[in-house]
Amino acid sequence: MIGLFAAGFLSAFGPGATPACARQAQARLTTTVPAGQHKTVRLRNVPADTRIAIAIQASARIVVSVLGAADAARYPAVREPVFSAPVQRAMSFAVTVPSAGTYYVVFDNARGDEPSKVQFLMQASRQGSAPVPRAPREPGDGALSPLRRRPEMHDM
Description:
Layout: E1 24-33, E2 38-46, E3 51-58, E4 62-68, H1 69-73, E5 83-87, E6 90-96, E7 101-108, E8 116-125, H2 146-149
Antiparallel strand pairs: 1-8, 2-7, 3-6, 3-8, 4-5, 4-7
């Protein structure tokens, strides 16, 4: 598991947070998911109704999922993911978590034949709504992901 967010990413939303810092937090991550494996990012103490906007770029096809603690514990036998979709090259989306708790973002390359380099940008906000971040692009690549061309598909 990648412990990037455990220390402070969502601590801005905790009980001692000021209204100004409780609005939004952002983090970037780059990792490689080996073929036949998955990697997980844990988001601790996420308040109810937090909107999480995610942009991903992957060098090979992966599946990204946002899971509650119960589904993460029984992964890959997930029953009710908050979100799950394949990423061919790039994707961006946003979800609003239904209840307070710990959530997990899973990058799954279990069916892959090669490692996938994953670049990941996440924004979390409680008041108002953070815009969905653009999926990272390779230098010189002017193409947007198909989801960015139809922004109405991002609202969930």
